[in-house]
Design brief:
Elements lengths: L1 E10 L3 E3 L3 H16 L1 H7 L8 E3 L11 E3 L4 E8 L2 H16 L3 E4 L2 E9 L8 E3 L1 H6 L6 E10 L1 E3 L2 E3 L4 H15 L8 H4 L4 E13 L4 E12 L4 H17 L12 E3 L5
Antiparallel strand pairs: 1-5, 1-7, 1-8, 2-4, 3-5, 6-7, 9-13, 9-14, 10-11, 12-13
Helix pairs in contact: 1-2, 5-7
């Protein structure tokens, strides 16, 4: 199963978080995982290219500038998990944190866990399975994806900052085949080059870390898939999987947060 859990945090003091909040949430996530399974935490922290989780920054807040934290205000983060074991460990710890009224800190800001959701209570939480993804209507020949947070692709020392189809769907296929019991054909990577961009409405946006920044694109892109059934099916599946996996570089710190946007019929 693939999961997207949203956590509402209630601020316990006034503060300012100067640098990119996604990196702070990433650090907190590892602290949680280390408390429940130190060996697993170390494995997650390794240099594996496609990791089984993502975190977000504060949803709805501009990631390119400092965030002023206001006491008693609610802030929402999202954690996605690509394995049942990870999900079980993480959720049990979050419920324990909530029940014991333990605080969590992001820089000087202190929070309590206000609520936790994996259902359809809001647009950023949910769950699915490989089987469910394969059983959906996977015949759409045009796919629209909205990139909510800066997205880029790292190739060697280069950061590629455009929504090229082969980069987007290769990123997704690599992670899908790493964590799905049902695999997609690796040879499809060559065919991703044949996908066209029908419409692109994106801008460049920076995320500032302690002593560097990463620049990527945000916005909406509409892709057209060639008349090849296997390719059409795969791109449909991957575009839905993207909600859980993220796209591109540093998804474990909240970059590349995306959604497929289905047109109303």
């Amino acid at each position: 199963m693939f999961y997207s859990a949203t956590i509402q945090l209630k601020a316990l003091n006034n503060s300012v978080i100067d640098k990119y909040i996604g990196k702070k949430v990433h650090g907190w996530f590892f602290k949680v995982m280390k408390e429940v399974d130190e060996e697993l935490s170390a494995a997650l922290h390794s240099n594996l290219p496609d990791k089984a989780f993502t975190v977000s920054s504060f949803i709805g807040h501009d990631v390119s500038k400092p965030i002023e934290i206001q006491e008693d205000k609610i802030y929402t983060i999202r954690i996605t998990l690509l394995s049942d074991y990870l999900f079980d460990l993480f959720t049990s710890k979050i419920f324990e944190t909530k029940m014991l009224e333990e605080q969590l800190k992001l820089e000087d800001a202190r929070f309590s866990v206000y609520s936790f959701s994996v259902g359809d209570m809001n647009k950023w939480s949910g769950y699915t399975s490989e089987e469910a993804l394969f059983q959906m209507d996977n015949t759409s020949k045009t796919i629209t994806i909205k990139f909510f947070t800066p997205t880029c692709f790292r190739i060697g020392d280069l950061h590629l900052r455009e929504p090229e189809p082969d980069k987007v769907f290769t990123s997704l296929l690599n992670k899908f085949n790493t964590y799905s019991k049902i695999k997609l054909d690796e040879n499809l990577k060559e065919k991703f080059r044949e996908i066209e961009i029908l419409k692109k409405d994106v801008i460049q946006k920076r995320v500032y870390f302690s002593n560097f920044y990463i620049q990527g694109f945000v916005g909406t892109v509409k892709y057209k898939i060639p008349e090849k059934p296997a390719l059409i099916e795969a791109v449909n599946i991957l575009s839905r999987f993207a909600f859980y996996s993220g796209v591109g570089y540093k998804t474990t710190m909240g970059l590349g947060q995306v959604k497929r946007i289905d047109e109303e019929k």
